[in-house]
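Can't paste images in this forum, so I'm doing it all in text. The chain is below; anyone willing to post the predicted C-alpha cells underneath?
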Amino acid sequence: MLRKIIKLLPQNLLVYMYKHMPFAKLKNWIVYRAQQKFLVAVLGVITNEKGQVLLLHHVYRDKPWGIPGGWMELECPESGLTREIYEETKLIVNITGLAKAIYGKSPNRIELVFKGVISDGEFAPSAEISNIMYCNVDEWPEGLPDNQKLLIKEILS
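Text version of the structure:
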C-alpha cells in the first residue's frame, strides 16, 4: 500500500522529503517499505586441488545434483556461501571471487555466483545433502540440470 502511494508522488518531492526528513529511522523504515523485495541467493562453483567441480546431491530436487548454494541471511555474500556449504556438507571453502550475478524469477531473486576452492573438512551428510562428488567438466552425473552445466562451463572457461 505504501509503495503505491509513494509511486504517485513526484520524484523531486520524494528527494526533497528524503533530504530534509530529520528522523533517520523513520526515513529508512519508509524507504524499506516502499521498495520491491527479492531474495539473494549465493552459489559456488567450487573446485578441489585437481580442478574438479564439487557437486552436491540435494535430497529435495527432481534433478538432485547441483552446485552448492543457498539463501543469504543478514551477512556478506561470501560469508553466506561459506556458511551454507559448511552447514550442508561440513566442508570448508575459500571463496576466490565473484564470477557472475544473475537475475531470476519465481521467486524474484538475485543469484551471486562465486568461484572457490575446497580448503579443509570432511564431508558429512545433512538433512538437505545426502552425498557429494567431484567431477571434471563435461563428465556430468545423471541429474545435473542443463542450466548448471552451462553455468559451470562459463565460470571455469
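The CA atoms of residues 47 and 53 lie 5 Å apart. DSSP finds five helices and seven strands in the chain.
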